[in-house]
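Protein in question filed below.

…
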Amino acid sequence: MGCFVSYSRADAGAARTIRQDLQNAGQEVWLDQQLGGGEQWWRAILQQIRTSRVFVFLISESWAQSKPCQAEYAYAKALGIPLLPVQVGDLASLRILPFGNLPMIDYRLASKDAFIVLLQSVARLSAVAWTAPAPPPPEPDVPYEYLMRLGDRAAAASLPPDAQIDLLDQIRRALEVETDERARQDLVGLLATLRGRSDITFRTATEADNLVASLRGGGSRPRTGTVQAPPDSGGAPPWNQVGTGAATPRVFLTDAAQPLPGQPTPVAGPTGPGPIGQPTPAVRAPVLSVIAFILGSIGLLFVPILFGGGAVVCAVAGMSRKEKPAAVALDFSIVATIAGVIFGVLVGMYASG
């Protein structure tokens, strides 16, 4: 294979541009746009690195802070693959980057001159023969493996109350020690997944909301100080995301894993806390739906236009109140009204004949 492109999810647009530019010039380029998350995703990436002739890594502040990108770089360097740094975003400092004195191509403007330098560098490095050391370096572990494990538990079909509390405690402990902001964003997404379960207990829901409140107030990382919200990921949730590069594990998908500032304060509803940042209204008794069933039943035998029509009106009103049985009540009311009319006509014909 030709070039392997390592990039942060935040730089996916630049990665696609570079891939297209190099492909237009006849170069073979690989980046992980069609893989999901987990161990299979990571093993496929490592296989592509091993078979590449040039390791192109797109430098930005996001790349420098990405654990998967750092793992890819360290593995390629240990294999002895020719390395080509390409700057696509701003950097706080060049001195702290791991690639030392390697000449870096500035591709932030994607100019014609920058492309010529990039293409020449790729062609030159592709001609360099390299062989992996013996024994080969060990494969790096799957990034954020613990997040994948927690994600499987949060999405389990059944999660007993004790398991809910244990999972919440693990998320809390991870938030206390995790320094990678994108991993912290994923942990917030896990918290929302847990909080959104239909079988969540009142205790777990309350503690989850309290944890979110502490995140907003800076109390989730007592060992490191105030929590900073993770950078915006362009509106895309962080889990199981396909085709966004190797910046974060693509293993969870939840819209709740967004920066916390700006969300309303969680409020406990009459029947328990609502979703994270949202109050839950009291559960409404299906009064109108029950009335609709009763009126529809009466309308089968007596004055269907009056009682059946009333049943339909009650069922529609129940739907507006989001009563669960309202839709069934509406269907029943319509059928009962029609059946009542037909029955009345048949009875009248029989009586007159």
